Amino acid sequence: MKYEIQFKYIEGLPKKSYRNGKPEGIVMHETDNEKSTIWNEIAFMSRNFLNAFVNAFADKDNIVEIADPRYICYGAGAVANRFLMGIELCHHKTKADFEASFDRWCFYAAAKLVQFDLPVIDAEKTGKGTLWSHAAVSKHLGGTTHDDPHDYLARFGYNWSMVVDRVTKYWNELKGVKTENSLPTGKVYAYEVYQSKSVGFSTSTYLSGFNDYYAAVDFCRRWDSAFVKEHNTGKTVFGPTPAIKPAIDVSKYPTLRKGSTGQYVKTLQKALGGLVVDGSYGSLTDTAVRAFQKKNGLTEDGIVGPKTWDKVING
Ligand SMILES: [Zn+2]
């Protein structure tokens, strides 16, 4: 670890569970207090935690975790508190001190995302992701009105994208990622897949279906390399997640026609819908096949060969 995280947990903090049992991201705050030191801030929070507390503070010399990140903090309003943890950046006067504190602040965020097996996904513009400014929480989630930390960062010529870059840099270091453009973006994709209901597998399938995150990434890549490529160019990271299904090889499926029977007829009847699934290719199935062929620009002959099979199964 580049920096030591000091653990000085405040006693008596509430231990409420996150909505999914663990944080799903982190909110980056600044203290908005010119005079206060990190130790003043922590002492203040120890006395007032019923109103508000975050998980950690960073200044030019320290990263101090004061609240167990396995439980919710009260840092960024009712909506965010249910799934996001938070860290405060303490104020400094000089650019050198600011940079030292900024680096620790970003390092902590990266370390926690790694701890909870989360990727770095900037939520600033989309309101979806793992790395949040308090301003983005106010804008996208509500329940709070603060707009930190942008103004404070700007004082030193910094902006939000520099936060994302720095957190990503440390995330990669902590994960031992070698190529900047491969795994993290793959992870973004896997994360979206994991989040998405439209691709047909749920969170629990994701968790049980792969040995680890990297296996999931590889699987996703094989699914749709074009989409991953698009991610790697950074164009549409948060575009709509396409409904992706691996294509099924239908070349070995038997050709079916009126009079055919058996399991494949059942498969056909089920896929076409609106038919009794009895495995017997009769007049009703024939009518349904011809209608399907017509609708899809296929030869309207009631014979289910490779082209019709492909359309029926893979769409
Ligand atoms: Zn804040």
Describe the protein.
- This protein has helices at residues 38-47, 77-81, 95-115, 134-141, 150-155, 160-175, 183-195, 203-209, 213-223, 225-232, 263-272, 283-295, 306-314, and strands at 6-7, 25-30, 56-58, 63-65, 84-89, 131-133.
- The chain has 315 residues and is α/β, with parallel strands linked by helices.
- The protein has a 6-stranded mixed sheet, sandwiched between helices.
- Strand 3 and strand 4 (63-65) form a beta hairpin.
- Helix 3 crosses helix 6 and helix 7 (183-195) packs across helix 9 (213-223).
- Mean pLDDT is 80; it is low at 178-214 and 221-245.
- It binds zinc ion (ZN).
Under CATH, the homologous superfamily of the largest domain reads Peptidoglycan recognition protein-like
The overall pLDDT, averaged over residues, is 80
Question: Which sheet architecture does the biggest sheet show?
Answer: 6 strands, mixed
Tally of helical runs: 13
* Shape verdict: elongated
Beta-strand portion reads: 5-15%
Poorly predicted runs = 178-214, 221-245
Which architecture of the largest domain per CATH? Answer: 3-Layer(aba) Sandwich
Strand order of the largest sheet: 1-4-3-5-2-6
Helix content: 40-55%
Number of domains: 3
The number of strands is 6
Q: How far is the N terminus from the C terminus? A: 50 Å
The molecules bound to the chains, other than polymers, are: zinc ion
- Going by helix content, strand content and strand pairing, the class is alpha/beta
What's the CATH topology name of the largest domain?
Answer: Lysozyme-like
Q: Give the SSE order as H and E letters.
A: EEHEEHEHEHHHHHHHHHH
CATH class assignment of the largest domain: Alpha Beta
